[in-house]
Design goal:
Rossmann fold; alpha/beta; Dihydrodipicolinate Reductase, domain 2; 7-stranded parallel β-sheet; 7-stranded mixed β-sheet
Length: about 500
């Protein structure tokens, strides 16, 4: 019997645990599940006689080593900062290691020892990163096999709320680590677009709204994700004019998060005693401390001023049209104006009216949305007590998000992924888009848990049965990994839809 040791029984682990236990009899496995919360681990194991729930301090080196020694393979779904201790133990006791987290510099320092001991440390083996790497490389290798030259690569991915469960002004609910949601984007972004290398800092990351059309779903917004260019060598796309990885969100979410950043609500400096205080009180304290009490008034006032003048002019135009109708006169249906360079341009009156009305509606939507989103998070909540001791603004925001944006038992989340690749073949340009939409079953068996957990579980099975024989420090960009994993994912209804076009 082979032993699988899994660290972490949180939100992303549910489907992985089920997969391992469902295959345990046929594959002759036993599962050791370690979590700080023993009751949580036991609830995930359920009545299975192939699983054992365990709880101990992960910093306890002796206990950690005790269980790692027993394992044939180790999977870590712990916070990224805790992986390195487990990784060092896996080198020490010569055990293979799987995780969904990004490969970090500390782990890279272990690479010589990993290779020397013929171990496999497979990182970035979840959703994003994970399924994105595997599905992208499958497309890229297929294009190269035909002789194509790739000039553009864009990969979008996001964890969202399913449309049928979308009932709040953020158009978002939590299906993964809430801390990661709060701190998303802090590292800024680095990518290449149309031949120009771009670096975007955190404060600017959410300011320029970019949209993409998702087949069978509609339009979503996106922001650039971390250092895209660090993957150009792995994908062998160093010369691509565009190379970009993004995170998908609803456009209203991106607008709201711009406000969150502007209000310094993601600041990580502990400065607020939250004991005995409501959300309303701690939010007000933060606003007052930073002089943001006037921020909202100023923001709404600015929106009002933007719309006031245009509304007045639009009303004058409509009054003039009505007067012309009553007197039997006719108004021109177009007019000429000059741009800032003195060039004359013709505009249709009806087009201007429609654009003005659209602008007014959008600005009024923004002003209304600002209030709705902030109040939804608890800006006026005088009942919910925080009681978390000394907290940073980010801690308070996380508390609010966990309370207000939680998936309810009947809610469903959704994973959306889209690859857009442009390539040249025999003097002609082509495009391929490959999209994935996965919906969760409920607040436990989420799409996020499915798409993070299944690749790890499938990879563990393929390593243990000898299908994957690679050694060293790896991420899943090689054919030996992605072909069998993607094949089994398809059998689990995680399947991409491809559309080919001529450019």
């Amino acid at each position: 019997m082979k032993t699988i040791l899994l660290f972490g029984a949180g939100k992303s682990a549910t489907v992985l645990i089920d997969y391992l236990l469902e295959n345990a009899v046929d594959q002759n496995w036993r599962l050791l599940l370690v979590d700080a919360d023993l009751n949580l681990a036991q609830s995930k194991i359920g009545a299975s006689n192939r699983g054992t729930a365990i709880s101990f301090d992960i910093q306890d080196e002796a206990e950690r080593g005790r269980y790692i020694r027993q394992a044939d393979i180790v999977i870590s779904l712990l916070p990224p900062s805790l992986h390195i201790a487990i990784a060092r133990d896996c080198v020490r006791f010569q055990k293979n290691l799987l995780t969904a987290s990004y490969l970090d510099d500390a782990t890279r320092e272990l690479e010589p020892a990993i290779s020397k001991n013929k171990l496999l440390f497979l990182y970035e083996m979840g959703l994003d990163p994970g399924i994105d790497h595997m599905s992208a490389m499958q497309l890229i290798d297929g294009i190269r096999k035909k002789g194509g030259n790739i000039f553009s690569f864009v990969s979008h991915c996001g964890g969202l709320v399913a449309p049928e469960s979308d009932d709040n002004p953020w158009h978002y609910k939590i299906s993964w680590n809430p801390r990661n949601i709060i701190l998303a984007g802090k590292a800024g972004a680095h990518y290449r677009e149309n031949g120009a290398e771009k670096k975007v800092d955190y404060e600017s990351l959410f300011t320029n709204e970019r949209l993409v059309d998702i087949p069978d779903l509609g339009t979503l917004g996106w922001y650039a994700n971390r250092d895209s260019l660090s993957y150009t060598r792995l994908y062998q796309l160093e010369d691509a004019a565009t190379f970009l990885r993004t995170t998908l969100r609803h456009s209203d979410f991106l607008y709201g998060w711009r406000n969150i950043i502007e209000l310094k609500l993601t600041d990580e400096t502990p400065q607020y005693d939250t004991n005995g205080k409501t959300l309303q009180q701690v939010f007000k304290e933060h606003m007052d401390r930073h002089g943001f009490s006037e921020w909202l008034n100023q923001k709404l006032a600015a929106r009002f001023e933007e719309t006031k003048g245009m509304l007045e002019n639009l009303m004058k135009l409509m009054d003039a049209e009505q007067e012309a109708v009553e007197t039997g006169e006719s108004l021109p249906d177009s007019f000429m104006t000059a741009d800032d360079k003195g060039n004359l341009q013709e505009f249709g009156v009806e087009d201007v009216k429609n654009q003005a009305a659209g602008f007014l509606a959008y600005k009024m939507h923004e002003a209304n949305l600002t209030l709705k989103q902030l109040f939804f998070l608890g800006l006026d909540d005088d009942e919910t007590l925080v009681n978390r001791g000394l907290c940073s603004a980010a801690d308070i925001l996380q508390f609010a998000v966990e309370k207000k944006l939680a998936l309810r038992p009947y809610d469903k989340d959704m994973i959306v992924m889209l690859h857009e690749i442009g390539y040249e073949l025999e003097g002609k340009k082509f495009g391929i888009s490959s999209s994935l939409i996965v919906k969760g079953e409920n607040h436990l068996r989420t799409a996020m848990a499915k798409t993070v957990g299944l690749p790890l579980g499938i990879a563990a099975k393929l390593i243990l049965d000898g299908t994957i024989r690679l050694h060293g420090l790896q991420i899943p960009t090689s054919r030996e990994i992605y072909e069998p994993v993607l094949k089994e994912l398809e059998a689990c209804q995680v399947q991409f839809k491809e559309i080919n076009t001529s450019l």
